[in-house]
Write a structure and sequence with these properties.
alpha+beta; 2 helices; 6 strands; globular; 178 residues; 4-stranded mixed beta sheet; 20% strand; Ubiquitin-like (UB roll); two-stranded antiparallel sheet
Length: 178
């Protein structure tokens, strides 16, 4: 039996997510690569429109944070999960690079500011409950997301987890040849 997670009593009211754009042709032109100057913009599925959500409409937790899933835009590879507060989300939008909030250091964290492994943010999506954010990024072919030096933080498998032939696993370690 599934149990719904307990939620704090003081909650922001549920937001209504309406797209302010009224002409579908405007959406299509704005989201089509090469039209209207857009080159890295995602194209919405045929017949659909992206609903717009303001940062103020997000449902932050009791600490003022929201989880952020980071995904490689062209492969769908999940690179990492982190946390962001409203100022980190706004800074991400302004910089075009991933910015998070470090719970351990209690401060903003610009991914790659010291390591050089920045994540260029191409799109920011919000889930249906407005309590999880998705950054679609370009990590670069040689870039790493994990502090261990791995491309993705999801390079380990839980013992006993089922495996099927179609499940991608971590790339095998390269052997050095003399």
């Amino acid at each position: 039996m599934l149990h719904e997670r307990a939620r704090p009593v003081a909650r922001r009211p549920t937001a209504t997510f309406e797209d302010p754009v009224t002409d579908p042709a405007d959406d299509a032109a704005a989201m089509t690569p090469g039209v209207g100057g857009a080159t890295d913009e995602p194209v919405p599925p045929q017949g659909s429109r992206w609903a717009q959500v303001d940062v103020a409409q997000l449902r932050f937790d009791q600490d003022g944070l929201v989880p952020v899933v980071v995904q490689q835009h062209d492969t769908g590879e999940v690179l990492m999960v982190a946390w962001a507060d409203a100022p980190a989300l706004q800074r991400t939008l302004a910089l075009g690079e991933a910015v998070f909030y470090s719970r351990s250091r209690q401060e903003q964290w610009h991914k790659g500011a010291t390591s050089g492994n920045t994540q260029r943010v191409l799109d920011v999506r919000v889930d249906c409950d407005a309590d999880v954010v998705l950054y679609l990024v370009d990590q670069g072919s040689a870039g790493v997301a994990c502090h261990t030096g791995e491309r993705s933080c999801f390079h380990r498998r839980l013992t006993g987890a089922p495996t099927t032939p179609h499940q991608p696993g971590p790339a095998p370690a390269k052997e050095s040849t003399p």
